Amino acid sequence: MSGRLTLSWVNKDKALVPTDDGSYQWVERDDPRVTEVRLLQQRERVGDVTDGPEDNLLIRGDSYDALHALARTPEYAARYRGKVNLVYIDPPFNTNQAFEDYEDSLEHSVWLGMMRERLLLVRDLLADGGSVWVHLDDAEVAYCRVLMDEIFGRANFIATVVWKRRNDPRNTATHISADHDFILCYAKELGSTKFQHLPRTEAMDSAYVNPDGDLRGPWRRGDLAARNFYSKGLYPVTTPSGRLIAGPPSGSYWRVSEDELKRLDADGRIYWGPDGSSRPYLKRYLSEVKGGRVPSSVWHPEEVGFVRNGKEEVRALVGDVFATPKPERLLERVIQIATRPGDVVLDCFAGSGTTGAVAQKLNRKWVLVEASSLTVEKFTKPRLEKVVCGEDKGGVTKDVSWDGGGGFRVLEIGPSLYERFGSRLLLADWAKGEEFSRAVAAQLRFAYKADGPFCGSKGRTRLAVIDGVADDVVVRSVVSHLEEEERVTIVAKGASPEAAETLAWVSKGSRLLKAPADLTRSGRVVR
Ligand SMILES: C[S@@+](CC[C@H](N)C(=O)[O-])C[C@H]1O[C@@H](n2cnc3c(N)ncnc32)[C@H](O)[C@@H]1O
């Protein structure tokens, strides 16, 4: 024991795989269903897309498989690993309810295990200056806070935001009406994280007035006396009306020296009251106020939306009610604080797609993952289609002057490379030809690129995938295509007895692997 505080739960040393009923099953951490990197298969293109790495992605499938693929498949890892600026997730809160669109009643340890696996991958994907925001209610927030301390480090905790989501307490509550949610916010690396200030509000600006018609515009009185000791801060002043003031108010010091006060006064920056006889105040001009508003940890529904706003926004767009959508203004607030235009935003519990819709309207790049195909078809995809087509007139559209543009690709988590027969693991029927090569490349972290007998390279090592048996002739033929100093990893469905020996002889340092047995020990998540 290192003495570190950690949260423990039943089966914490195990991993989870999703089951068909929306729940999860505990398995060993090196189970191929956990270590396998699934391929992301393209299903649709919506709006303007380039098929390049910059495209926004809507991924249908389990968030673990999706995050794993984004972090481990070289093509996606180059774009996303260590490069995601904001992760906002609104996972099932574990409130022990069955919503129409998804189940929300996992066994406590299963919920924690499920979150742990995904947050570990989120950490890998976040940029050093990035942040993760986890939206929860009282059911799991305390446990998730400790879990996130463990994963991201206590030192990287930023704040627990409280979103007051309703102003009409439920009178039917047994004891106390819970009217707020929490959003736990952690930095990947606090020292590198810079949040944006929020735009100033009209109320803030209205504190600035211009009773004396100052040409610099509206201003606000700034106190020139403070309690902090200042060696040059005790001196008498004479007001423009001729009144002598012996010094600053008792127990305080002028904030500026006598010379500086004279300079400011000559520049018209000192206010002496309406008749020129009060003690001096500094004029702070609105035109010189830098930056906006530092975000606070309490968010009011009048500013960021009520629960009902989220539902209305989705219903207005797709004509159906999603159980738990968040209001667009809430996501606008998160995205404004944590990112700049062009940054990458990820939400792997996408639901109706609020995060993607708002990210698009604010000119951020996004990746959404949603496990329920029904939800994707009924809510997420149609909503995002309307956003890019400029047909979404609700939410934050008007405030940010959005009128459509851009696009996204719809991807799906590919099927497993393996099939189980009792305790035996075999290759799935579909594992043939190019698809087989692509899947093998992903497991071994080679970027897929067909080139003669090869289908990928990593440094000076090439990958050759043989959809059959590798024998002496095959091995020699593959090696004959290598450049000097190149090595090859050959993966075959079978190998003749002498093939490995031949390979070692003709290309020292190259290796021969058999699928599936030699693949299942690769691609393990670093825990
Ligand atoms: C609370 S809702 C998210 C609502 C969303 N923030 C919105 O504004 O619409 C949680 C979503 O997570 C999805 N989900 C649950 N488990 C998942 C998993 N393992 N992978 C991906 N999505 C999952 C559910 O289907 C549900 O749509």
Describe this structure in words.
- With 527 residues, this protein is an alpha/beta fold.
- It contains 15 helices and 28 strands.
- Helix 11 runs parallel beside helix 12 and helix 14 (472-480) runs parallel beside helix 15 (499-506).
- The relative contact order is 0.14.
- The model is unreliable at 522-527 (pLDDT under 50).
- It holds the Pfam family N6_N4_Mtase.
- This is Adenine-specific DNA-methyltransferase.
- Residues 84-373 form the DNA methylase N-4/N-6 domain.
- It comes from Micromonospora olivasterospora.
Widest sheet: strand order?
Answer: 3-21-4-20-19-5-8-10-9-18
Number of helices: 15
Q: What would you call the structural class?
A: alpha/beta
Number of strands: 28
CATH topology-level fold name of the largest domain: Rossmann fold
Distance between the termini: 17 Å
* CATH architectural label of the largest domain: 3-Layer(aba) Sandwich
Overall outline: elongated
**Mean pLDDT level:** 94
Share of helix, binned: 25-40%
The CATH homologous superfamily of the largest domain is named Vaccinia Virus protein VP39
**Biggest sheet overview:** 10 strands, mixed
How many domains would you count in the coordinates? 3
Bound molecules: S-adenosylmethionine
